[in-house]
Amino acid sequence: ASLADETCVARDRDDVTASSGLPIEKRILCNGKVSGAIAYAKVPPLPAGDARKAALLAALDASRPGQLARGRLDCKPAGWVGDTLALPCRARSGGWPTLVLAREANGVLTVAEGAASMFPVLATAAGRPVEGSRPQLVEQLQALWGEPVVLASAGDIDQLKSLLRDARVANGQGKYTASESLFRQALDVQTRLFSENDVTAAEIMMDLALNVSNQGRSDEAAALFRRAEPIIQRSSNPADRARLATYLGYEAANRGDFANALAQARTAAEIWGQVAGGGAGGADAINASPGGLRTMARGEMAMALNLQALMALRQDDPVSAYAAASEALLIINSTEGLPRFWRSDVLSTLGQVSVAQGRLSAAETYLRNALAERHSISGEGAATLRMRAILGRAYQTEGMHSSAIIAFR
């Protein structure tokens, strides 16, 4: 049973085929809900003694299960539970505590992942059950995380995942009213699980704040940011503060306060740069890999620079705007594992900057490339139509009315 008193069982996956010489991957179901996973990989013989931890972490990082995990999780330095490697992590979407256990035996790496409350279940899945009373096991978890750990049930996490996913999809589609309702429901669940003073609840407050800001309710957005900010400032994770600065920049831009938006964007870019370049203890290999925390921080830095460029452009400073947007594109082009639409957004910004500089040929190239990339991602969606409008306005600015008409069509 889990530490949330759920009955958990492992079931073979029927949608994958086992690799030669390996067991078939499994899903872990707790109270009937998919709550975790067990995966396997072949690894070379690992050394004994002090070198084993680094070798096991490197083997995890190189494995397919490790690559999939790092796209979803931000991990603290690794620890040990007996001879099992333990990574205390936080889900990048939702923030709930997630535990990854990895153990090697006879050239087979077993990787078990699930909610922190599944600690005894995951340990058994990894091939080395843990013993002790519930308070003793909770104490082990807190030692791994270095702080108290919320033991959310599979049902709670599943509900929260669904609400946040649907809220962000609706927000991306411009359905702000529906998105707001879903974010508020998610905040209720998150507050019940983590308390309103937990950083994970503060992150949803920021999502909700930006959502209502997009609807023109700046006073309400400001109140939500005031609730979230002191919680975020107490966080030991600099990425949380970088994200706050990013969101405050977008909110200021929505209010037309472009000077403040520019300042927030610069702060965000600076902190994201520190996260991207800093170490992350025992989990550094995973964090530095494509999809890991440091990789995503480089992408977030690029998007903060992109906002910086747009705000500089609003203040009639195309030179600074071009420098920031060019740096953003350089980062995007040299970093694997980032969302594809980020490059399209930066190309669009460079196009707008080029229009302001009177460089129509360059503007047309940037905007057409941005439009093509966005269209390949989302078809003729709202974002694609916005880029067509930008291209059309660029043609209008240069008196190319026929081209403008074609773009607006």
Q: What best-fitting shape do the alpha-carbon axes yield?
A: globular
Q: Figure out the total of helices.
A: 17
Which class do the helix and strand fractions yield? alpha+beta
Oligomer: single chain
H and E string: EEEHHEEEEEHHHHHHHHHHHHHHH
Q: What is the CA-CA span between the terminal residues? A: 60 Å
Largest sheet: 8 strands, antiparallel
| Poorly predicted parts | 279-291, 401-409
Number of strands: 8
Mean pLDDT: 86
Question: What's a concise summary of this model?
Answer:
The protein is an alpha+beta fold. The chain is built from 17 helices and eight strands.
Give your account of this protein's structure.
The relative contact order is 0.07. The chain is globular and about 75 Å long. The longest helix has 22 residues, at about 295-315. Among the domains are: about 10-145, no CATH class; about 340-409, Serine Threonine Protein Phosphatase 5, Tetratricopeptide repeat (Alpha Horseshoe). The chain is built from 17 helices and 8 strands. It has helices spanning about 50-60, 65-70, 120-125, 135-145, 155-170, 175-195, 200-215, 220-235, 240-255, 260-275, 285-290, 295-315, 320-335, 340-355, 360-380, 380-395, 400-409; strands at about 10, 25-30, 35-40, 75, 80, 85-90, 95-105, 110-115. The protein is about 60% helix and about 10% strand. The model is unreliable at about 280-290 and about 400-409 (pLDDT under 50). It is an alpha+beta fold and about 400 residues long.
